[in-house]
Amino acid sequence: MTVVRSLFAAASGIGPLLVGAILFLAGLAKALEPQSFVRHLRRLRLLGEEKVLPAAILLVAFQWGLGMALMVRLWPAWVLPTAILALLALAVLGYWGTATGRTADCGCYNGVLTFSPLQSLFLDAGYVTLLALSWWRGTAGVPISGPWRTAAVLLATAGGGLATYGLFRYSVQHRKPLIELTPLKVGRRWNPRWLGKDLGLSAAGGERIVAFLGASCPHCKPWVKVLNVVHGRDGLPEVQGVVALPVDRLPGYVDRAGVRFPVVAVKPWVAARLSRGITPTAVVVKDGTIQEKWVRAMPKTFTDRLRTSRSS
């Protein structure tokens, strides 16, 4: 019993610090690449277009502030139940979004970490349990106020909102995020494990286009026609398609879309992490390294290369 009590005491003591740090870091991931988080909220279709960005800013500010309050133990009698209710609400919202097919994942970590809907629920249940243990054991002897704690929470809240707004404006102005959280970056080695096990997509040696397509993406149809021409033509890269679909629905998609190059099916949250939910997206991999990245448009240099290949 003494060991069990010691474990409970340790869990209740470290719980707010751990959950607070996770909340803060998850909010940081949203602030660093706010366009992805805005797209996630837009897909939920719960708010009008003009309210999506303000909601993203407020949510990140709240997440930073709540995470900091948990870490510095500011007003635990109020903050702990607030955090528990917030986590429960976010868990329900995330599961509902994936269950209805509106979103690929819960959006909790903005694609930096990806989990299945069930795994996300288990994680949220663990966070809630840690906070509930701390709340149940009480906060005797723990400072609940102080100027520096209050200042830290206020600064974190303001910083989260300002960072989200500022980096969103930057990404709109420059048409790309200041910091890309996706592993698909030019100059990085292609990792076959990104798509999961047993898919046989090595991309080592030679040149290959890996194209992320959407099962119901209207912008992907012209890409499929071009990639059909590219695949197997001398002097041009091989093509590998990736689509977020159950494996048993892949043959139907291939027939319907008229795809004539190899395609693999991956889990929605896997595709969302890599393509950031934007289809079509493609990378050109040469000798195992990502050389180019295309988002919704093929560069003129490649279309010129295709014309040259046709003429020859």
Description:
With 312 residues, this protein is of the alpha/beta class. It contains ten helices and five strands, in the order ααααααβαβαβαββα. It has helices at 2-32, 34-44, 49-72, 76-99, 117-137, 147-174, 220-230, 250-257, 268-275, 300-311; strands at 207-213, 238-244, 263-266, 281-286, 289-295. The protein has a five-stranded mixed beta sheet, sandwiched between helices. Helix 8 (250-257) links the parallel strand 2 (238-244) and strand 3. Helix 1 runs antiparallel to helix 3 (49-72), helix 2 (34-44) packs across helix 3 and helix 3 runs antiparallel to helix 6 (147-174). The longest helix is centred in the first third of the chain and has 31 residues, at 2-32. The protein is elongated. The mean pLDDT is 87.
Uncertain segments are none
> What is the approximate shape?
elongated
Strand order of the largest sheet: 3-2-1-4-5
Distance between the termini: 81 Å
Radius of gyration: 23 Å
The major β-sheet equals:
5 strands, mixed
Average of per-residue pLDDT values: 87
Properties at a glance:
single chain, 312 residues, alpha/beta, five-stranded mixed sheet, 57% helix
List the SSEs and their pairings.
Layout: H1 2-32, H2 34-44, H3 49-72, H4 76-99, H5 117-137, H6 147-174, E1 207-213, H7 220-230, E2 238-244, H8 250-257, E3 263-266, H9 268-275, E4 281-286, E5 289-295, H10 300-311
Parallel strand pairs: 1-2, 2-3
Antiparallel strand pairs: 1-4, 4-5
Helix pairs in contact: 1-2, 1-3, 1-5, 1-6, 2-3, 3-6, 4-5
